[in-house]
Amino acid sequence: MKKICFTLALLLCCGSAFAFDFDPIGTVKKAFGSVTGEKGSGITAGFSRDDRLEIVKDDIYRLMWQDQKFMDSSATLSTLSAMGDKYNNKMTYAEAVKYCDDLNFAGFDDWRLPTVNELLSITDDTRFEPAINKAFKNVAYKTNDKGEKGYGCYWSSTEFAGGSSSAWFVCFDDGNDGNDILYDVSNGSFVRCVRRY
To answer: Exposure pattern of 33-64 as b/e (b: 16+ CB <10 Å)?
Structure first.
């Protein structure tokens, strides 16, 4: 019994010393590294892509990600409307939640909006524009008048603790979680749904 109490006390003391630097997503990414079998692939071990279903599977967290072909958001609104695909349009937070809840894709209907930590788990700190794991082929972007792509930000289901009028999002140009900006839920952002498997 004394050993158990001592061990718990030691964990509490040491754990509190490292609590502010604890980064479980970064730790997992560093531990698993990149797939070595595919030279320069940049696909993190534990991730796989199914081109037929347009999904990416994360075997570490047991998540399946929507990864449909994206149409440049600089396309005219009439072109996007003709497609009837909300996935290509920016949505408010409420629309994003409803979109994922209603989504029937790749043979599954239990999709949801991901948490901010889940979105951060698919970023790639070694890449820029887009800063996303190479298993993902599709990231929302808008082309400027110089032909340069500006990659989009995606809603998370994580509401800001200081009030429900804001929610966290992740930008895939640089992998930032928007922590310096409070994003109002009435603003538009892109959506990438996820499900557990």
So the answer is: ebbeeeeeeebbebbebeeebbbbbbebeebb
pLDDT attached to residue 30: 47
Dist CA 101 CA 59 (whole Å): 22
Q: What is the helix, strand, coil percentage profile of the chain, to 5?
A: 25, 25, 50
DSSP letters, 50-116, are ETTTTEEEETTTTEEEE------TTS-HHHHHHHT-GGGS-B-HHHHHHHHHH--BTTB---BPPPH
pTM of the model: 0.71
Q: How far apart are CA 136 and CA 149, in angstroms?
A: 16
Span 91-126, pLDDT tens digits: 999 999 999 999 999 999 999 999 999 999 998 888
